[in-house]
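Quiz preparation item.
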């Protein structure tokens, strides 16, 4: 890393953006096995936040690998670097006042903890999308699990590479067994409980 760089403070602060928009920013880090429903849930939550007129953006694993991380493979070292980059990008979105949703397998606890350490306490919400491996394999429309079991895809999480589930996530969502509407409601209610979003009651009181 170059030593000839200086961090420049922005002319617009994060708190000012929060006051203008009426909600806090945060990083919602969806993690789980391939096929667990991370992208499906994150997209549905993002749509609900948009419906409410809130500033949000989804960083999706496959989409990121098309651009920012298209030089990375799926070895353990490359997975670490992939998540490091995402953590830094999510931090910038957080400072921009955006509720930032990330949907990545992010299999290693140490990488998720490193992403968490980039921001202040309360800004990082780890959401464990819990689904049995058998369910994930049944959902696998790309046939990736079958290829991994046949040895055609090396370093595949859940088959030839480990997944380390969160030990104390802010939220555990049973995406393997519950309807998507129930899962979205669980996430939104948590955001209200930790005051990232205003509770409907407080909003109606403010308008009264």
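Solution:
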């Amino acid at each position: 890393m170059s030593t000839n760089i200086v961090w420049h403070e922005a002319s617009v602060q994060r708190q000012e953006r929060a006051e203008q928009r009426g909600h806090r920013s945060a990083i919602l880090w969806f993690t789980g096995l391939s096929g667990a429903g991370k992208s499906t849930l994150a997209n549905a939550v993002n749509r609900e936040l948009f419906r409410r007129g809130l500033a949000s953006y989804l960083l999706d694993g496959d989409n990121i690998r098309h651009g920012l991380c298209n030089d990375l493979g799926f070895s353990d070292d490359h997975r670490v670097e992939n998540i490091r980059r995402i953590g830094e990008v999510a931090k910038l979105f957080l400072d921009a006042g955006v509720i930032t949703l990330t949907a990545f397998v992010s299999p290693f606890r140490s990488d998720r903890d490193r992403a968490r350490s980039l921001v202040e306490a309360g800004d990082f919400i780890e959401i464990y999308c819990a689904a049995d491996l058998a369910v994930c394999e049944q959902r696998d429309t790309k046939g990736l699990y079958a290829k991994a079991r046949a040895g055609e895809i090396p370093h595949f999480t859940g088959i030839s590479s480990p997944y380390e589930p969160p030990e104390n996530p802010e939220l555990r969502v049973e995406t393997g067994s519950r309807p998507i509407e129930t899962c979205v409601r669980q996430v939104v209610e948590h955001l209200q409980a930790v005051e990232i979003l205003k509770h409907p009651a407080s909003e109606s009181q403010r308008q009264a």
